[in-house]
Amino acid sequence: xxxxxxxxxxxxxxxxxxxxxxxxxxxQLDQGLNDLAASALEDAVNQQLADAGITLEEGPDCSTDLTxxxxxxxxxxxxxxxxxxxxxxxxxxxxxxxxxxxxGSLAVYHDDTAVAQVDEIPDCSVxx
Length: 128
Fold this sequence. Notes:
Keywords: Signal. The protein contains one helix and five strands. The protein has one helix at residues 2-51; strands spanning 56-69, 72-83, 88-98, 101-110, 113-121.
């Protein structure tokens, strides 16, 4: 009889550990997608700044709060950097990134002065 009691306990332990492993993989996947989106947005911010004649010391550094919606990522992101003139640069994005493009609001500011406001980011895509 002792054998039959151990089987359900072992089965429950196996299911629990499998769920924990899958949860960890899901978090790593989410972080990877957010990193991919942040990289695409950093490129877009750099391009908008270059078009405005502004060069950064380094960066920008973007943080994202995105949710996967099918084959797209939807949500917002904020980017911060410092221009070579020492003034702060920030960018705000609210929209959708996918393999077919990046749409939504991207606003880029140099020392609180708007230097770009676009609703469609040129040459931007994120493949999931």
